[in-house]
């Protein structure tokens, strides 16, 4: 048996991104169940996760329900001590827990003014002084952690931890709204944008293609600042493969990459791959084996 994870829209639900990263980045199996935010789907899904009121919510293999991201993180760290959700160094763990708690409860101006939207990036969002003050606080605590514990890599405490998962949606806000940060903070943002797990999440959100109008701003747009994906396009079959690289089922939907056609068992499998082909190991293994 595995965990069940309830999430909302991948392009907009920052808390869902955190919850998903706890499982994805640390190799903990989970079945993901999604609902569309601001619709009846939310309460229908959460009826199976009572008494949780919001996404993400988790049901353990034994049937216990965990609501709130900080509780999910602590529970998984307790149940999977070898997964590495917290830093191994005791002093680093203290700092990481403190930073996660501050993120969970604070940065209300940044979160309120700059809602997560992984489908857009803006040239200039004219951040208010309150947002700039919170960015300064972020830079301070990020630098404090990285300078002491993370100097050998891009993450706050050396290797990726639950603290990095907690700050991933903040990194996307800086990317979406082109918020002014130092070179060191931008390097940390860039590490999140380049992370294959985050890129898979964003590609799935693009495949869902859900538009929540309240998340869109009247600013001039720019290209997404993360790594440019390989160029692929939807097309007609036939394909080189007969079975979907993810499910093994017969193919019905197709994309073209580097002049060759590949098949998938449904539109979502095709489209999540189309939007960022190189971050899907099963697909790329199939492509490489045919060369």
UniProtKB/TrEMBL annotation:
SUPFAM superfamilies in alphabetical order: GST C-terminal domain-like, Thioredoxin-like
Gene3D superfamilies cross-referenced by the UniProt entry: 1.20.1050.10, Glutaredoxin
Regions that span the bilayer: none
Domain GST N-terminal: 3-84
One Pfam entry name: GST_N_2
Domain of life per record: Bacteria
The name this protein goes by in its record: Glutathione S-transferase
